[in-house]
Write a structure and sequence with these properties.
Elements lengths: L11 E6 L3 E2 L1 H4 L5 E2 L2 H13 L2 E6 L9 H11 L2 E6 L16 H13 L9 E8 L7 H17 L3 E4 L6 H10 L7 E3 L8 H9 L3 E4 L10 H13 L6 E3 L19 H12 L4 H15 L2
Parallel strand pairs: 1-4, 4-5, 5-6, 6-7, 7-8, 8-9, 9-10
Antiparallel strand pairs: 2-3
Helix pairs in contact: 2-3, 4-5
Length: 296
């Protein structure tokens, strides 16, 4: 099992997660090293029992990616993990990203899709999470977006982005469109961290998918407001361009460590959606059908 290209369309997909990530040095906080294998396996087994079949894993180069860790999780839990390739966001770039030719950056991504990651059997199935800073796409970030576009054209794999606090999503799409990327093969991440409906409507109108993927992070933006925006999209018949996830990144997010756990999306947020007038087919569309189309 490699996690490459294929997801199981019979079950739910979390569209933006991290199973092994280490930003602890950058943030000077050991909580930002998510690596507790047994706890994570336990949560993945629970998700599997609740109908989740796929995790789109967004940890790329220099974020603490561990391909063998992901392969072991697949082996031990039965859940499918789709790994990613790329570079994250300006503050996390190693110095060489600013000077390496764009075509070389693209070839790194292509190789991780076609050959494998760090000498393992794991191949990337998505170009992600390609990021921008708050209210700006820096010149170096622009180079990474261009490399992602090249890798997309070469491999056909979709692109998933990181927006900082729900800013610059439209600008990301404009960049990718300028390099002839089919925007129906792009999903914009972290669209649920501020009142953002007008931009969401414009992004969907351009053909892109939008992700409500920080569900449960109420200190950033409350879930009740996420549901209000999702309701506005539902009323306009646009849920077929929405995917859901939680973006778990810290040890303290895990249930055994006192956090909400990966299943908060299913056990707390989905009941909130149903209470707000969403139907079960609406839920299935966002968690099963849309990812099956996007990650084909």
């Amino acid at each position: 099992m490699t996690g490459y290209k294929y997801i199981d369309p019979s079950g739910y997909t979390y569209a933006h997660e991290h199973l092994h990530i280490d930003l602890s040095s950058f943030k000077d906080n050991i909580d930002c090293r998510l690596d507790q294998y047994e706890l994570i396996c336990g949560e993945m087994k629970s998700l599997y029992e609740q109908g989740v079949r796929n995790i789109i894993e967004m940890t790329n180069r220099y974020m603490g990616r561990n391909p063998q860790f992901l392969l072991d999780i697949m082996r031990d839990t039965g859940i499918n993990v789709m790994a990613c390739t790329g570079y994250y966001q300006h503050d996390f770039f190693p110095p060489h990203v600013a000077t390496t030719p764009v075509k070389v950056l693209a070839q790194e991504m292509i190789d991780e899709i076609e050959i494998g990651i760090d000498g393992t059997a794991l191949k990337a199935g998505i170009i992600a999470e390609i990021g921008s800073s708050v209210d700006v796409i820096t010149p170096v970030e622009k180079r990474v977006f261009q490399a992602a576009a090249i890798a997309h054209h070469e491999t056909g794999r979709p692109i998933s982005t990181h927006t900082s606090f729900s800013t610059m999503g439209l600008e990301q799409l404009a960049l990718l469109k300028s390099w002839c990327v089919d925007l129906s093969r792009v999903t914009i991440g972290h669209c649920d961290l501020k009142d953002n409906l007008d931009n969401l409507l414009r992004m969907i109108d351009l053909g892109a998918y939008v992700q409500f993927d920080t569900i449960g992070k109420n200190s950033y933006y409350p879930d009740v407001k996420r549901i209000a925006m999702l309701s506005a999209l539902k009323d306009r018949g646009l849920l077929d361009h929405v995917m859901l996830s939680m973006d778990i990144t810290r040890r303290s997010h895990l249930k055994a460590n006192g956090g909400p756990g990966f299943d908060y999306l299913l056990t707390t947020f989905v009941p909130m959606l149903l209470e707000a007038g969403f139907s079960q087919p609406d839920i299935d569309l966002m968690l099963r059908d849309n990812p099956s189309v996007f990650y084909k």
